[in-house]
Design goal:
This protein is an alpha/beta fold. It is built from seven helices and 15 strands. Strands 10-9-8-7-11-12-13 form a seven-stranded mixed beta sheet, with helices on both faces. α5 runs parallel beside α6. The longest helix is centred in the last third of the chain and has 14 residues.
Length: 273
Amino acid sequence: MNMDELMGNPGSVQISKVITENPRSKTLQFSLKNPIEFQPGQFVMVWVPDVDEIPMSISSWNPPEMGITVQTIGEATQALASMSKGDWIGIRGPFGNPFSTNSKKALVVGGGVGIAPLRPLVYNLLDAGSEVTLVNAAKTKNELIYRNEFEKLKHPNLKVAIATDDGSLGFKGFATDAVSNLLDGNEFDSMYTCGPELLMAGLYDLTKKRKIGFQASLERFMTCGCGICGTCAMDPTGHLVCVDGPVFTGEQLAGFTDFGKYHRDAVGMKNEC
């Protein structure tokens, strides 16, 4: 493997479309010059000129078109969300361990912008003939992402449930409570999730009681995306989110002491989830 392959074959792409998902989130679409192999759950490293390089989940995939959904949090995401059609960014990847999609009856739970990597997963599962129940959760209805898209899909194997903390739409309360109600009345063989880590930890506890397969996409600070820098290592096992993840199974999560408790920043200091 040469250095370009190790680093994910870096290249530049031109933004072809910008979609406003909610007041803080946008989807950027672009065409890739060279074909890549992508599986739901993988991510790319995105270089924002003159700012920084950050990991971003792939939220849409229709070769050669790819999309990423960005929520404004820091300087790099703010700069990325401020870009327009015709602007250029750097892309390398995809990286990481994807979701395993051998489920017959799946429960997919997205919290806030965490629904981004779950979007291609839902379509992949439906294409494979799986029954899918999607829980789209956010603090308020104005923060929901892809709501209209999934409601208009009308796929016979897809059920969509909305949960908002404030009750402005759908179930009123935390997503864990909405999911607990769904688990009581259905027999799912797998749960897939991405979102705030406290949410995912709570969902993991629910599946342990019911012996349901569990997969979660984690987020950690990283700089290389390909296993070199080690900044995204999980405690105490040393699993790297960029290589061994970002998708981990329940069995793997059981061995992580930081899951649902803390994550490390750029200098290795612990920050509570």
